[in-house]
Amino acid sequence: MTKVVSIFNMKGGVGKTTLTLHLAYDLADRLGKRVLIVDFDPQANASEGLLDAAAYKSHKTNKLTVSDLFSETRSTLSPVAAGAAQPLPDLDELVCRARDFRNAGFVDLAPADIYLSNILERARGSSLDQRLSAVLAGKKSRYDFVLIDCGPTYSVLSNNALRASDHVLIPVVPDSYAAKGIPILLKKIVEYNNNIPVAQQVKVLGIVFMKVADSVIHQTSIRSEILREHRNVFQNSIQLSISYQRAALSSRTVFEIGKVRSGVKQNFQELTDEFMRRV
Predict the structure, then answer these.
(1) Pick from 40, 183, 214: nearest CA to 117
(2) Which of 26, 41, 78, 139 would bridge 151 by S-S if both were Cys, CB 3.0 to 4.6 A apart?
(3) Strand, helix or coil at 102?
(4) Residue 42 CA to chain centroid, in angstroms?
């Protein structure tokens, strides 16, 4: 059964895209899973993290992006009667193959572009909130996992992601902002769940510490504080490494580049294994 997971935090720079890309890659490459990434951030970092400039340009020229889910000419449901608004695009019109592996695992991508930012100005509403789930319906069964890389702004995009999801995964950097921000984020999720039927409510899969540097004393104390206040924290955390930035410069993951510090890949694989136990 397909699991849909939103990678979500209302703060930028916490490693949402890094977590999304590397989790997808490891699930597909090492575990043979079929994974779709939905880039729901107008900055399109996940798209640029998997597609080089030529491939990204080609996709935008020949196919659709997730911003087309919110075109003024599109309705929420399909098919529609002749003369009415156009139906939502088919998932195949949005998706491209980003990585293929010999073990039958693969990573597909539904890319974003800057036009997705236009939707941030619109008010949330039930018809808009269902668009991603409507497009995934009937097609997501081809995947083992759908990972939604969410932007940092709570908006109609966030509601779309939550409506389509079974779980929420929360990456945080252990700093004072994270300690203050986690309760606010969790409250937002509770408020969302309170307004929809129980069967559609999302579950918090857990909090993941990102960019962890054990040598930084204040990080250790803040991690301890968060662990005291929140039980649902992954045992494995992602260590700070320049390799993630190096990989991103060439639209790759750390699993695809050379000269990676010993333990970086294993560190992420241990997180993936814990993710599999929890999901």
Answers:
(1) 40
(2) 41
(3) coil
(4) 13
